[in-house]
Design a protein that fits this description.
Layout: E1 19-23, E2 26-29, E3 34-37, H1 40-43, H2 52-64, H3 75-88, E4 92-96, H4 99-116, E5 123-126, H5 135-139, H6 144-147, E6 157-160, H7 165-172, E7 177-180, E8 183-184, E9 190-191, H8 194-207, E10 210-214, H9 229-232, E11 238-241, E12 252-256, H10 258-261, H11 277-292, H12 295-310, E13 316-322, E14 325-330, H13 338-347, E15 350-351, E16 353-356, E17 359-362, H14 370-394
Parallel strand pairs: 3-15, 5-6, 5-7, 7-10, 10-11
Antiparallel strand pairs: 1-2, 2-3, 4-12, 8-9, 11-12, 13-14, 14-17, 16-17
Helix pairs in contact: 2-11, 3-11, 7-8, 12-14, 13-14
């Protein structure tokens, strides 16, 4: 298929395919060819494509009302907040439109907390992190390639190596808190060490500092729990969510304890579209479906099956991640071939992506079936065998 002329910004290297419809874990392009979706729109399509309950709820809402603004009471938003805070264990919720907006809100809460408590306004963050593309969240992102030529960046962030506890504890002395991903998603699906998070949570509590978690990619069942923090037995003071929260409808959220929510009274922060009726209906439906279909348990079980099937595969050095957010690290002979592997998989009907030159990310919908895991693994294995054979022949 030849690409059509486009008036879009050229800020994406798009694959030459256009999808027309989807069902469960399968996407169909305009020519009718099917693809196993093991990327989920980058961990977004938590219920897969065209889940009947989500379709029904959104269709019903579209027929009634889409938007009234947050100047008025939105019962759908209140119901979504009640359910979300209940399952995740927080006092209050703020709805926005994206993960970047949610992290931006966390940063603003941290600064207000610092001013109220006479603390330094600096926030400790990690190298290799990704928190978004607004100027503040970009400034908090520990990867120079995302920041190139966007300077001057927003000041007030101190970077330390991820999983380096001593460095983080030292930096925390001169900070109002720390902002981390439990699993660095765009950084290569790098999980935090358990003792690292628990020690930082304890230090923040003792010092009156904020322990903030970016669960934009890891939250809402992606790792097999409502929050990845539950794998580690830690509790953030506030957490950012997005991606899978709306099952494909754009929505972000910040969950916080009540005293932090109270730092943003009327006029201190806001959003035009955040928490609109369609987004709120999507959030509530996603949460209800996840409970009724046991998707947390399935994510853990299917994630472990996928991990087992990937281990020991030709060309695979290691498998890392939690639940259904996994990365395959390639062996040294294929250390720069992740994009080539992803391309071969795409040509064979499997969607994954190269999250790093030597690592592939797999994040299928939480409704993925065992048979679909087996089919995906077979496609990936064919691609790895093909490249491994080519590399051996070149030598």
């Amino acid at each position: 298929m030849s690409k059509c002329p486009t008036k879009l910004f050229a800020n994406y290297n798009r694959l030459d395919v256009a999808f027309e419809r989807g069902q469960g874990c399968t996407l169909f392009d305009v020519k009718g060819r099917s693809y196993l979706d093991f990327l989920s729109g980058i961990a977004v399509s938590s219920l897969g494509h065209a889940h009947p309950r989500l379709v029904e709820a959104l269709t019903d809402q579209v027929k009634k009302l889409l938007h009234v603004s947050n100047l008025y009471i939105i019962p759908e938003q209140e119901r979504a907040a009640e359910k979300l805070t209940e399952v995740c264990g927080f006092d209050a919720a703020f709805f926005c439109n994206s993960g970047a907006e949610a992290n931006e809100c966390l940063i603003k809460i941290a600064r207000r907390h610092a001013h109220k408590n006479d603390l330094p306004t600096t926030i400790t963050v990690a190298h290799n992190s990704f928190h978004g593309r607004t100027l503040a969240t970009l400034s908090a992102t520990g990867n120079p390639k995302y920041q190139e030529n966007f300077d001057p960046l927003v000041p007030g962030f101190r970077f330390v190596d991820f999983n380096d506890l001593d460095a983080a504890l030292e930096a925390l002395q001169d900070s109002c808190g720390i902002l981390l991903e439990p699993v660095q998603g765009e950084g290569g699906v790098i999980p935090a060490q358990k003792d690292y998070l628990s020690a930082l949570e304890r230090a923040c509590t003792e010092q009156g500092k904020l322990f903030l978690l970016d669960e934009v990619q890891t939250g809402i069942g992606r790792t097999g729990h409502w929050l990845a923090a539950q794998h580690y037995g830690v509790k953030a003071d506030a957490v950012a969510l997005a991606k899978g929260l709306g099952g494909g409808v754009p929505v972000g959220a910040v969950l916080a304890r009540q005293d932090l929510a109270d730092l943003l009274p009327p006029g201190a922060h806001g959003t035009t579209f955040g928490g609109n009726l369609l987004a709120s209906r999507a959030v509530l439906t996603v949460l209800e479906v996840m409970e009724s279909e046991g998707l947390l348990e399935k994510a853990r079980a299917r994630g472990e099956l996928l991990r087992r099937r990937l281990r020991g595969m030709v060309g695979v050095k290691s498998v890392r991640g939690l639940g259904l957010l996994l990365a395959v690290e390639l062996e040294s002979g294929l250390s720069s071939e992740a994009s080539a592997v992803a391309t071969l998989c795409f040509e064979d009907g499997l969607l994954i992506n190269a999250v790093r030159p030597n690592a592939l990310r797999l994040a299928p919908p939480l409704v993925v079936k065992e048979s679909e895991i087996e089919a995906a693994v077979a496609i990936l294995e064919r691609a790895l065998c093909r490249l491994t054979t080519s590399a051996a022949g070149a030598n």
